[in-house]
Amino acid sequence: MSQTKDFNLKSTFDFYYKSPKQFTKKQWMIIALWCFGNLLIMFFYLNAGASVGIALLNFIYGCSLIWLYFTRILAFIVSPVIYAVLYILSLVRIVDKPGNDMVYEWGDALWFATLAATVIRSYFIEAYTIPTSSMEKSLLVGDFLFVSKFHYGTRLPVTPLSFPFSHNILPLTDSTPSFLTWMQMPYKRLPSLQHIKNNDVVVFNYPFEDGKPFDKKENYIKRCLAIAGDSIQVIEGQVYINGHLADNPENMQYKYYVKFDDTGYWNDKKFQAMLRSYDITEGEPLPHGNLDFGLYLTYKNKLKMEQQAGVIKVDSMFSDYGTYQEYIFPHNPFYKWSVDFFGPLYVPKAGDAVMLNPNIYSIYERAIRVYENNPDFKMQDDKFYLDGKEITSYTFKYNYYFMMGDNRHNSLDGRFWGFVPETNIVGKALFVWMSWDKNAPKFWQRVRWNRVFTGIH
Fold it and tell me: Which fold would CATH assign to domain 253-316?
């Protein structure tokens, strides 16, 4: 077929469309394997409780993608956009003036990359960026990670109809959802390579943000300190699991009160240079004096800071035992818990039965009502009701986990909002492949070369 440099919608479709009669044996084999994989997923969904109709619809949707790709219809759909881009590029002589063959090659490459990347991202491995300092200094703001979806068992898509390469917000918008909720699939995981272990660094969907499907809630990353069946307690900032002292991350941080000499020893340049030499990126002046700071330090840096010239004293900033902080889970004055004195708290395991009372209700109410999908669970006159019937105990369907940040005094974690259900687990953090320090004084120092391709512990 002769090629023309003039774009025409009908001629473009005639050029693109490939009848299934023209498919090669290799293409039919790929289609068969793809559809077989989608058939297995359909049976997984049926096993998880999906209706036949919604499971079949998901199967058809999955198979249609590979079918539309090989018939070239997907490439045809984007051909006007590709043509426009190539035409603009041709005006500045970056490419030749586009014809059907060039537009098809670009469209085909775009859709193949989209399908391949979507499969890899959904089922195997996904890139993730550290946006906050809650894991300092184990993970730094600007670290780029790879997260394994399959170590803990790939979670099958719960909200499959979504815009490629976006989590929950459309690109170039502030709040427009990138997903459609009318096709919701039940929670189901593929077989796992391993279970979540104590101290694993885990990516999960933030358990609040009600109104969003749980797989489209914001991604958080923390350290899993307590797994299902554990009891966790924090005493003066130190974590205990099942009554035993937990291992501390090597670079764990606390907030310390640091008083500096204010007799003229420091100027701003000298002070900032000192902070950078300790790799201190967080802190704020305290209302005790001109050079009183609350700084986030590793224990090693705390000991060094005590010997630093120009430092008068370094004190811990732990809360007092018995202090009730209302923003701490479970937000009940009966439990006089704080950031530094917390628990003991039992983390539910699938199959566990808990006896209900008014104080226990405040701990497990959200897990039972929201995470286990029992919206009518309630307490009334110190009695408990589920499906309109009075109950005295509840048996959990899912495993739960307790997450904390390594930056113990600057982390929004389980001490504030409680448990993470297994449904919200995304994957295991594997390694840092890139790290970018946007605050480095010189541009060529912004790549943290010592962190490139480093493991996560």
Answer: Alpha-Beta Plaits (3.30.70)
With 0-12 / 13-18 / 19 or more C-beta atoms within 10 angstroms meaning exposed / middle / buried, residue 340 is buried
CB contact at 8 A, 228 and 450:
no
Q: Which of these, 197, 3, 11, lies nearest to 96 by C-alpha position?
A: 3
Retrieve residue 198's tokens.
């104590």
Q: Which residues contact 51 (CB under 8 A, 6 or more apart)?
A: none
Strand residue runs (E) in 185-236: 201-205, 219-226, 231-235
SS (H, E, C) 55-80: HHHHHHHHHHHHHHHHCCHHHHHHHH
Domain 124-163+179-224+418-457 class in CATH: mainly beta
User: pLDDT, tens digit, for every residue of 206-257?
Assistant: 999 888 999 999 999 999 999 999 999 999 999 999 999 999 999 999 999 9
What is the three-class DSSP state of 386? Answer: strand
For residue 405, the surrounding DSSP H or E stretch is none
Residues of the chain with pLDDT under 50: 1-4
Only one residue has tokens 């997907």, namely 74
